[in-house]
Amino acid sequence: MTLNNYEIREIQASELPCLEELVYEAIFNPDPSNPYPHETIYEPNVIIYWDKWGSGKMDRCLVALEGDKVIGAVWCRLLNGNPKGYGYVNDGSPELTIALYPEYRGQGIGTMLLRKLVQQATLDGFKGLSISVTKGNPALKLYAREGFSIVDDNEYDFILYKSLQS
């Protein structure tokens, strides 16, 4: 399939429930034979990524569609409260989440989503974007290619940041 088969646009209210499922897809599991319980998405440090979407002034979300089916999304949200997000860097930079259903990975859709959100965040005047990426996640290559740099190295993950100001 070519990228021409997909549409990227802002999420619509009727599609907000898909964030609940996509946040689960965003959690990288180095051992797919032992999946995380689905209830993980309701833990306090995870639910902040998708619950009450649209309530934050820096909430932005783009979806990728194949026909009328949401197949992935990229979103950012300022997570500087209590708890802070896993990828917190500073109070002016929202944290990024990106997810595609497995059968749509590796086709350039994630790159397309990421570039469009970076473009939107830049136009909106955001300082930068951060993301927490589990060590061993193949998506690390995507973020490096798109200008994200490692700013912190924890036991299990890297915190990446891309400045959006010149």
TrEMBL record:
Record-linked PROSITE patterns: GNAT
InterPro entries: Acyl_CoA_acyltransferase, GNAT_dom, N-term/lysine_N-AcTrnsfr
First and last residue of the signal peptide: none
Annotated transmembrane regions: none
Keyword annotations from UniProtKB, A to Z: Acyltransferase, Transferase
One GO MF term attached to the UniProt entry: acyltransferase activity, transferring groups other than amino-acyl groups
Annotated GO biological process: mitotic sister chromatid cohesion
The keyword Oxidoreductase appears for this protein: no
Domain called N-acetyltransferase: residue spans: 6-165
One GO cellular component, as annotated: NatA complex
UniProt key word Transferase: yes
CDD domains membership: NAT_SF (cd04301)
Short name of one Pfam family: Acetyltransf_1
Protein name: GNAT family N-acetyltransferase
Lineage: Bacteria, Pseudomonadati, Bacteroidota, Bacteroidia, Marinilabiliales
